[in-house]
């Protein structure tokens, strides 16, 4: 079946069609209440009811489409955005697809960027590497490869590589070690054209929905009972985003407190609250929120 034609007023969003960012991007948009594609051959998903169209594109191409203004927003990696040199800017950090972009070589061969003069550097991100070399005043040749650049050293195509490092497993398998400072810390980001001075209401709604999902995932809701004279100390442990809700309890001398707590701090905060005297400490998931 052919894909539906885009409708005119809809917000047009670029989605990664494959690779490291695809699944998490789809999950994020689904949690934000949008219909995402059900199978990987779908190129466009039109959601007429919500006035949104998702275009599934190669992550590397997304900044090009958005930078030229053909799509209003897109999800891609910061490294891909900067490498493309497309005139697009970050609107929101999405908290997944984290990686660093680093130089690596055989152990003991190179220890700093200054040592790269005259060397051959293999990479799939020539834009990022040329800029970094220029920033350091280094004259090296860049060998552009499509992927699997770690093997370029083994095969003698390059002396050094510059590539995405997540766990470091691929580098280790190739017998390479990172050197120098990270060129870039990357993560998935929502981007929009640089020259659009103002966002549109439709983009604002998308951003608020995505922020809602990110917050709901990053925080839990914590409830507990505490003696009234300890409530200030307790609230200092659970300050929440704005201010905790404190309600009277039927039992005199006690209050109930409700506050959002960073998910990663859940158990440490519960330990400290318990030590302070809080009881009936309950943690619940936040299904969705709009702050
Ligand atoms: N382990 C990882 N491997 C590759 N990319 C990762 C990893 N972790 C995070 N990322 C991020 O995902 C994006 C790259 O995605 P993807 O793998 O789809 O691109 P690509 O390698 O250029 O494409 P492909 O491998 O399909 O040619 C970058 O923003 C990168 O920083
Ligand atoms: O540090 P790690 O966890 O090992 O991950 C980083 C590796 O993963 C990516 O490769 P990808 O699978 O995208 O293949 P590619 O090189 O062909 O793009 C990246 O280019 C590195 O090679
Ligand atoms: Mg890849």
TrEMBL record:
The entry's keywords: Amino-acid biosynthesis, ATP-binding, Cytoplasm, Glycosyltransferase, Histidine biosynthesis, Magnesium, Metal-binding, Nucleotide-binding, Transferase
Reactions that this protein is recorded to catalyse: 1-(5-phospho-beta-D-ribosyl)-ATP + diphosphate = 5-phospho-alpha-D-ribose 1-diphosphate + ATP
Highest taxon of source: Bacteria
ATP phosphoribosyltransferase catalytic domain location: 58-212
Matches recorded under PROSITE patterns: ATP_P_PHORIBOSYLTR
EC class: transferase
Molecular function GO terms recorded: ATP binding; ATP phosphoribosyltransferase activity; magnesium ion binding
Recorded metabolic or biological pathway in which this protein acts: Amino-acid biosynthesis; L-histidine biosynthesis; L-histidine from 5-phospho-alpha-D-ribose 1-diphosphate: step 1/9
Keyword Transferase applies: yes
Alphabetized CDD domains for the sequence: PBP2_HisGL1
Activity regulation: Feedback inhibited by histidine.
Cofactor annotation: Mg(2+)
Localization (cell): Cytoplasm
Entry EC no(s): 2.4.2.17
Any Gene Ontology CC annotation: cytoplasm
Gene Ontology annotations of biological process type: L-histidine biosynthetic process
Histidine biosynthesis HisG C-terminal domain segment(s): 216-287
Functional description taken from the UniProt entry: Catalyzes the condensation of ATP and 5-phosphoribose 1-diphosphate to form N'-(5'-phosphoribosyl)-ATP (PR-ATP). Has a crucial role in the pathway because the rate of histidine biosynthesis seems to be controlled primarily by regulation of HisG enzymatic activity.
Protein family membership: Belongs to the ATP phosphoribosyltransferase family. Long subfamily.
Protein name per its UniProtKB record: ATP phosphoribosyltransferase
Classification lineage: Bacteria, Bacillati, Actinomycetota, Actinomycetes, Micrococcales
